[in-house]
Design a protein that fits this description.
The protein is an alpha+beta fold and 206 residues long. Helix content is 39%, strand content 20%. The strands form two sheets. The protein has a five-stranded antiparallel beta sheet with strand order 1-2-3-4-7. A hairpin with a 3-residue loop joins strand 5 and strand 6. Keywords: Membrane, Transmembrane, Transmembrane helix.
């Protein structure tokens, strides 16, 4: 399969292209320069704590909403035994509908795999490429632990992070500036490039 089909440069053509084509694995003539995984243990522990707190707050709010009915009142009426399981099921369902997507996305971010080739930046989840950005012409920013790409030819089949504008992110990696230097060698434009950037890695790493 050809690596990275070109899409139109017009802004109006970019949105359909980002939705309608599935990102492809590295193709013929596409060399893997670097690959790695996010180091998410500390963040996962914080996100787990936040997730449990969210569940507790949602459960408390739901119970407070139905407490007048369970206690009985002139407004809510008297509770009927057959309705109690239904009420509790609705509460559990509401909590899961709100909280489960948060947990699934957090888990996916921790399981993501990043790859930089001589043509593209790729994000893998399981055995599928879920995002790609063409390096040539891409705008790139990097800090100590994250590299962000914004490219005219970019496909995001699933956003792993809801922060600001769409970006392809290599987050929580140890050698982010070196990876950015490598991407710059293959056509990415480093917007916040330091005066003395680190040397690019010599070969692919795990």
């Amino acid at each position: 399969m050809a690596a990275g089909e070109a899409v139109g440069g017009e802004a109006g053509a970019l949105a359909p292209a980002r939705l309608n084509r599935k990102p492809s694995p590295p193709g013929e003539g596409e060399a893997i320069l670097w690959q790695g995984r996010p180091r998410m243990l500390a963040r996962k522990l914080w996100e787990l704590a936040g997730f449990l707190l969210l569940l507790s707050l949602l459960t408390w709010a739901a119970v407070e909403l139905i407490r007048p009915h369970l206690a009985g009142s002139q407004f809510a009426g008297q509770p009927v035994n057959p309705s109690l399981p239904l009420i509790l099921s609705m509460v559990a369902g509401m909590v899961m509908i709100i909280a489960l997507p948060v947990w699934l996305r957090s888990s996916a971010r921790a399981r993501a795999h990043y790859m930089l080739t001589n043509r593209r930046a790729l994000v893998w989840l399981g055995g599928n490429v879920i995002a790609e950005a063409q390096l040539f012409g891409a705008e790139m920013e990097a800090d100590a632990s994250e590299v962000r790409f914004d490219a005219p030819h970019m496909l995001l089949s699933w956003r792993l992070k809801d922060e600001g504008a769409d970006r392809l992110r290599f987050e929580q990696i140890a050698d982010a500036p070196a990876v950015a230097a490598l991407a710059e060698e293959h056509g990415a434009r480093w917007l916040n490039r330091p005066e003395d950037p680190p040397a690019a890695p010599d070969s692919a790493s795990g």
